[in-house]
Amino acid sequence: MSKMTPQEMAQKIGSGLLSFPVTPFKADYSFDEATYRANMDWLCGYDVAGLFAAGGTGEFFSLTPTEVPQVVKVAVEETKGRVPVLAGTGYGTAIAREIAIGAEKAGADGLLLLPPYLTHSEQDGLAAHVEAVCAAVKIGVIVYNRDNAVLQPDTLARLVERCPNLVGYKDGIGDIELMTRVYTKLGDRLTYVGGLPTAETFALPYLDMGVTTYSSAVFNFVPEFATNFYAAVRKRDQATIHAGLKNFILPLIEIRNRKKGYAVSIIKAGMKVIGRDSGPVRPPLTDLTEQEIAELTALVKKLPAIQSSQQAAE
Ligand SMILES: O=C([O-])C(=O)C[C@H](O)[C@@H](O)C(=O)[O-]
């Protein structure tokens, strides 16, 4: 199957909800390919515009540069062309290029460029880093503003002139002024993705800043809720959005905020809650306690009642 052009990829992912699947591990922390395949096949049955293999929720930061293309290859095989598969890449320029090339060879339709490792840098250094990764592949690249990787609008404007395959911008910072300046400067040259932890929280205000989609981690284990919520955001259905935030997202965030790293660990716990146990998180993350899993179970069990009451209200 011919690969999507960067522009086709950008248009597709900007049109719908984005899935960031967990990467299942066995008890010995090795990649659990069979569970990953089962999860991929199941999630492809829902209305998603893209699937990001080995992203943040996929514990990119705990995978080796060799594992990432292996995970991507399985995702590409299992989605069978039903959904575009994008791959995480990152760390320093040399490793980011290596992973990007490997992911493209594995069949990825695009890349999400996560921040460099540890060091902070100036705009011209970040720009050279992004340009080097874009130049290494033909597929589309989405840059991820987050932590030590903050590209300013003028830098982005220079980059899109030099990198035709730079087609997306993911916001992981939550700075409204910066997001507004980026969108005002770059307009429809880029597709914009909301990428803050538990992205549903910010989806409606971000939509008014030109951010038409977001990375939904909870989609992993409550796909009906996540797709209904996204549909409500696109319709600006305030009642459904605020009910979903009040009854599910905000109580989930209360558990998520108890420990560092729980933004990913709680998603793995959610997989256990729905009977798709995807194993432990790899260190340095820690898993939820049994008590916290019981709280999450109670939250998930209430969802059907919430959704049916919303449908009744419509
Ligand atoms: O790689 C990433 O940025 C993510 O996995 C982001 C998450 O999906 C985040 O948006 C969330 O927790 O909803």
Automatic annotation (TrEMBL):
GO molecular function: 4-hydroxy-tetrahydrodipicolinate synthase activity; 5-dehydro-4-deoxyglucarate dehydratase activity
Amino-acid positions noted as binding pyruvate in the UniProt annotation, renumbered to this chain: 57
Annotated signal peptide: none
Keywords: Lyase
Catalytic EC class: lyase
NCBIfam families per UniProt: KdgD, PRK03620.1
EC code: 4.2.1.41
Pfam families from the UniProt entry: DHDPS
Alphabetical list of SUPFAM superfamilies matching this protein: Aldolase
HAMAP family hit by this protein: KDGDH
Listed name of the protein: Probable 5-dehydro-4-deoxyglucarate dehydratase
GO-annotated biological processes: D-glucarate catabolic process
InterPro entries in the cross-refs: Aldolase_TIM, DapA-like, Dehydro-deoxyglucarate_dehyd
Protein family membership: Belongs to the DapA family.
Coiled coil: none
Pathway annotation from the record: Carbohydrate acid metabolism; D-glucarate degradation; 2,5-dioxopentanoate from D-glucarate: step 2/2
Residues annotated as the enzyme's active site: 144, 170
Catalytic activity: 5-dehydro-4-deoxy-D-glucarate + H(+) = 2,5-dioxopentanoate + CO2 + H2O
Encoding gene per record: kdgD
Gene source species: Bradyrhizobium commune
